[in-house]
Amino acid sequence: MKTRAAYAVGGNAILAGILLMLIGDFMFALNDAMGKWLVASFSVGQVLLIRSLGAFLVLGPMLARTPVTALYRIEKPYWQFARVVLATADTGLFYAAVIYLPLADVMTFYMAGPIYVAAISHFLLGERIGWRRWLAVLIGFIGVIIALRPSEAMLSWPSMFALIGSLSFSLSLVLGRVLRSTPDVTLVTWQTLGCLAAGIWLSVGNWSPFTGSELFALLLLGVVSCSAHLMITRSLKLAPASVLAPLQYTLLLWAIVFGWAFFGDFPDAQTLAGAAIIVIAGMFIFHRAKVKDVEPVVPNNSSHG
């Protein structure tokens, strides 16, 4: 039987996990706003390259304490490679989308991640989901279609960038579950190296000179992103995923705030309606997962941010 002190310690850990998740999500949203600002002046490749170098400023001390074998002796190398490709595509497509679309519009597509994950996991991981969650998945897809503006820009490149990027993000989350025994530092390092390689390739012929302050901002992008990732990873060790998962929707709130404050963008009624449907469907999926004693997936990496 647990003592009162044990319950207090457990409660404090959960509270700490919630605070870390909220701060991490805020930092991710700030990182996304910084990314939108930077891709207005620099190519996606250049942002990816220098952002990745900035991330290694945070990863460096962690890698110094990690055996080299942990980086190349990895489980399921083909799945690891697929995850790196998907995470890199997700990051690049996110930045390509925010060049043209408001932050909140792009984030609306990414908030559909748990809906995609529920559907994908059924087929790739053999995780059975009942008719209620299938209905929520269908309703969530309707929300995505509404946000896509079928009558106007459903096939526009920016919308496709956001949609394909969010699907890549979701697939990388599912592969993260497949590779759950791989140390987090290994996953993040290979993911960052993938973005670095893509950045070098995409930067050829698309390099713009920068000032010292601009270089600092580009490096800071990677530092903020990697720090946020570590906060969210830690939060998941302190509090149950079922408690933390709904908090990810604060990203959408911050995207609306930052988009309005920094870029003068505010989502229109159609985007807000689609976002509301997606959030409601996602929350229901979290609820049903909790009822069925299945820990929901929380986006605990910054693949797009």
UniProtKB/TrEMBL annotation:
<keyword id="KW-0812">Transmembrane</keyword>
<dbReference type="InterPro" id="IPR000620">
    <property type="entry name" value="EamA_dom"/>
</dbReference>
<feature type="transmembrane region" description="Helical">
    <location>
        <begin position="81"/>
        <end position="101"/>
    </location>
</feature>
<feature type="transmembrane region" description="Helical">
    <location>
        <begin position="185"/>
        <end position="203"/>
    </location>
</feature>
<feature type="transmembrane region" description="Helical">
    <location>
        <begin position="134"/>
        <end position="151"/>
    </location>
</feature>
<feature type="transmembrane region" description="Helical">
    <location>
        <begin position="157"/>
        <end position="178"/>
    </location>
</feature>
<feature type="transmembrane region" description="Helical">
    <location>
        <begin position="107"/>
        <end position="125"/>
    </location>
</feature>
<protein>
    <submittedName>
        <fullName>DMT family transporter</fullName>
    </submittedName>
</protein>
<feature type="transmembrane region" description="Helical">
    <location>
        <begin position="37"/>
        <end position="60"/>
    </location>
</feature>
<feature type="domain" description="EamA">
    <location>
        <begin position="16"/>
        <end position="148"/>
    </location>
</feature>
<dbReference type="InterPro" id="IPR037185">
    <property type="entry name" value="EmrE-like"/>
</dbReference>
<feature type="transmembrane region" description="Helical">
    <location>
        <begin position="7"/>
        <end position="31"/>
    </location>
</feature>
<keyword id="KW-1133">Transmembrane helix</keyword>
<feature type="transmembrane region" description="Helical">
    <location>
        <begin position="244"/>
        <end position="263"/>
    </location>
</feature>
<dbReference type="GO" id="GO:0016020">
    <property type="term" value="C:membrane"/>
</dbReference>
<dbReference type="Pfam" id="PF00892">
    <property type="entry name" value="EamA"/>
</dbReference>
<feature type="transmembrane region" description="Helical">
    <location>
        <begin position="269"/>
        <end position="286"/>
    </location>
</feature>
<feature type="transmembrane region" description="Helical">
    <location>
        <begin position="215"/>
        <end position="232"/>
    </location>
</feature>
<feature type="domain" description="EamA">
    <location>
        <begin position="159"/>
        <end position="285"/>
    </location>
</feature>
<keyword id="KW-0472">Membrane</keyword>
